[in-house]
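To: structure desk
From: M.T.
Subject: fold request, one chain
Message: Could you run this one when you get a chance? Sequence is below, nothing fancy, just the single chain.
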Amino acid sequence: MWHLALVERKIAVQLPVQLIGTFMVGALPVIAGAMQGEIKVTYRVEPIMTLHEPVTVTAVLSNTTHTKMQVDLGWNREGSFAMKLAKPDGTTLAVTPHETGVGGFALTGEAAIAPETQTTQLIILNKWFEIDQVGKYELTVSFKGGLRVDDATVAFSVQRRDEHALRQRCDVLLDDIVNGSSTERQLDAAHMLSYVRDPIAVDYLARALDAHAGVDVIMITGLERIATDTAVAVLERARMSPGETGVLAQAALDRLRSRRRI
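Reply: Done. Structure tokens follow.
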């Protein structure tokens, strides 16, 4: 079981004044008590990883009020999370998730959080940063979704490459892709697997393609990132597939050739 490092920040929310007009005078104390409700933001990160594993941070936004709240998570539900990563060698990188031009589709950032419920968003740090050093990292997150909240900092450590740990993680991710209980779980697992930048991942990416799980574009992108001879061989086989899969695989091969990586 992975242990999670937790950081909480609370956002004070002023409920709309017009709500008061919808209640009788006798109910006003209830509304007054809810007017200073809170949205609680918790960031979760796995504290110890191995090199080449996908590193993720999960933002949990909990509505502790008695009223449905609208929150803007930004582009693809990530754009409102501005991040700074301090790496083991002392360098600091900053990024706000944005359109990359790679293609695909982006999710809407508007999230409606029902009273006393929560919404979560998974952010894959490898998508925005090179997690390529062994040692301690510190991630600072600034929420820019139109609500005032203090910055939060979480720390995690990356250990030396561990083939056994990588295979275990890939096994879990592949199972979620094929047998996941929801489309969201399948897609999250597919994106994480595509960011395992290690030759070990090639077999798992190929098996996900063979499973016809509806994540071909993500698997092909992962193979293109790895770009080993074995990964290219899988792309060569995939380009013979009918329909979109074949077109995507051929496009990936063309890009690799244009960059002279094959």
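Reply (cont.): Helices lie at 28-34, 163-179, 183-194, 201-210, 216-226, 229-238, 244-258. Let me know if you need anything else for the meeting.
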